[in-house]
């Protein structure tokens, strides 16, 4: 199920590639790991892991019930409750050159500046979404919520013209220029979508269409505090109700938008992303029951070799996201795992808030 096998031995990375993946997901995932090794030299323990770069989680827990061993450890970008895939930050934190999404350090600053161009009260009072509806049925269903001559659901939805954008170098899809509406809509694609952090960062309340997928940070978000939940099975009415409520309670709506944006800007700083990666890989390495060695068919990964042979926007984004020097402080302290009662209480609180908001509709 893996696209590649990565081994770290004495701070050096070795790659065994199994097959090509979509665009440069694997390239920028590996680039991010090399930056981690450069940021915390000598801190990443010896390890051996398998990585899948596709959208959908695949390691389903029930498939391994009753077997003598645990499910296979497989890293990827998201999971759902029924799966046990190990969640890792996605490639776009270091850039997505194919659609001109800049590395997160640069783009997060640009979005923060873009927020200042139009005050929230002066923004279009509808909910905005732009993307590819063809990748998922739920997105195709969302497009039915566009205004028509019979009904206005308070949504302004736009299908991305990929051919046109490619020809123009995605210059009309600048994410920092899309904070123009009072409300933004987040909806999953084939699984989770990397658009999540960009949408939440806009200072506008995110209308978060119910999803079963989590990436590495979404469990830190709370409905009613960081976003407004939207029913997946009744999107149009739910969106209209959320926008009507937000326009009628502007101070509360702005507070939710600001809380979601602050979470992304403060809790998702690239330093914390690296710290999460370090803690995750450290804890993972403790579970290995063997001493990792360099696989026979592996090649060493080096910053210079990856960057030197890169071209165009790939090279540009690699240079832009390169760690310039080792970290001069300790990584953040990882909180203790939730106890059973704490987790139950958290999930109940989230469910109660969601139910309360649905009753407002």
From TrEMBL:
Alphabetized InterPro entries for the sequence = CAP10, O-Glucosyltr/Glycosyltrsf_90
Instruction: Indicate the segments forming the Glycosyl transferase CAP10 domain, all copies.
Output: 43-291
Highest rank taxon of the organism = Eukaryota
What is the name of the protein in this document? Glycosyl transferase CAP10 domain-containing protein
Query: Which species?
Result: Asparagus officinalis
